[in-house]
Amino acid sequence: MSSWRLILARNAAARNCIIASRIPNFPLSQSCIPSQPPLKPQPTPPSSTASPRSVSRFFLPNDFRFFSPKTDITFDDDPPQNDAVPLWNETEPQEAALEEGEGQLEIEEEIHEINDERLESLRVLLQSNDDRSFESSLNDMCLALDHNSVARIIEIPSVSGENLVRFFNWARNDKSFKVSPSVLETVVSKVCQGMKKKEIYSLWDLVRHIGEEEKGVLNVGILNELISSLSKLGKGKAALEVFDKLEDFEIVPNADIYYFTVEALCRRKAFDLAWSVCRKMIDSQMVLEDVEKIGSMVSWFCKGKMAREAHEVYMAMEEKRKQLPLSCISFLVAKLCQENETVGLALKVLADIQGERRHRAIKPFSAVVRALCRIKDLDAAKKLVLEMIADDPPPGNAVFNFVITGYCKVGEMGQAVEMMKLLESRGLKPDLYAYAVLMSGYSNGGEMEESRKILEEAKKKHRKLTPVMYHTLVRGYCKLEQFDKALELLTEMKDFGVRPSADEYEKLIQSLCLKALDWEMAEKLQEEMKENGLHLKGITRALIRAVKEMKQCLIFVILFLLAISSSHVVWQQVAILMQKNNSEHKSSEVMVGSELNLMC
């Protein structure tokens, strides 16, 4: 056992002395093994490099492992008892010792040189997830950094954005390395590709410090990519913070950086802040070259219920001869038409649609016609329809129906009929909706005969009618208290193949109860509804019962009133007889009795 302990102790002592001998001016470098010349320092991986910092951590001059003043181990030239365990690596060639200054210079050059082996060690470190000793591990490598070496390091693939930012922060502290725009652009591009919130926030901290400390390093492309990444992450306030730093960094913004900032804010629905940025872009007369991006900005403001602001963006781009996509213009016009105050702006936008695009712009033109009819500017709507007939896009039934409906609502039936004739002159067939609107307009004005004429005309051109048309007539006849004609319409509906709906029955029953007090006919219609599988509302059923009970009570009231009125006449006759009795000195009882008998 003692021999094995001796062998292990001597091996450990030899290993420690070999390591210590590589360090210049170290106490043990010249005294551990005097019989052997010092070995030439060999390059080792970064994790095991015997730098003064790493060796002094484990080997202090007064506290060496396996070295004790009480040990009995002596170093002599006798070979160990076990020849199978050599103290030196006999295969390694031994060279003459270098002088102290030359050895130190060679060691420093080997430590600072970034060769393939050290680059591989860096790759392992950068791709690791151990963040406890990242900076200290970099310090232990004692790397000599310059522009080319840093460029090689940041091109290492599969490095997380967090480690890349930490390495770049560490490299900035080296006086031999100066940050250049090209290297920083590469770092920003690689970190932004990962699209991780924490990494991009760390990148923004790095970029902000560089911009505050070093002028001329940042450029608009770096901030463009950073704001674009924040936009994709939905971090609008952070993107606005980057945008607000442009003036401090002495960077002139371009149109793209305005676009990315507006995009980020609109994604967070911060439309007011987005408009403030867009306002700056318009005032600076910046022009986006990509019309798709312009269309996106217009659409964002439209979605945010800022149609006026979207129209300003449109006008600014129109002045620069930038034509937005037709889909974007249609969306803008539709949003402008939703508010009465901006319908005029929508009408002006239509004037900018020219050429072949106008032929395909039926959707925005229809929206403006409908909006003009809604605000009761029917003359402008009619004028626009005539322009569509002359210069495209050709109007369809829907456009004519908007104008016909508008004229019918204001009671101008002559203009409505004129538009109907214009529709027919275009080779279009009026649909049932147009006939129903005309019938409703005549019915509201009490012109039931004209309404019946429209119905007859509709029968000639359409094989099947809708219940709405008959409902319009039933309502008009009930309004005029012409219940017989209303009941005739129910029979006509069945003969023409139109099944009466509950609305027709409801309207007719209510009119019979409230105006004619004809609860008997109302009950018949209720039974007819049950046979047809229709359901009468509870309030209407209650109305029938109330009218029925009221009419019965009314009979008793009339009889009671007749009785009261008859007794009053009797007492008047009694008073007259009493006066006669007093004047003629006759017996009042006989006279009253005889008169009462006569009255009975």
From TrEMBL:
Transmembrane segments: 553-571
Top-level taxon of origin: Eukaryota
Pfam families on file: PPR, PPR_2
Residues in PPR repeats: 219-253, 396-430, 431-465, 466-500, 501-536
Skewed-composition ranges (Pro residues): 35-46
Region (Disordered): 33-54
InterPro entries, per the entry: PPR-containing_protein (IPR050667), PPR_rpt (IPR002885), TPR-like_helical_dom_sf (IPR011990)
Keyword terms of this UniProt record: Membrane, Repeat, Transmembrane, Transmembrane helix
Similarity comment: family membership: Belongs to the PPR family. P subfamily.
Name of the protein this chain belongs to: Pentatricopeptide repeat-containing protein At3g02650, mitochondrial
Source organism: Arachis duranensis
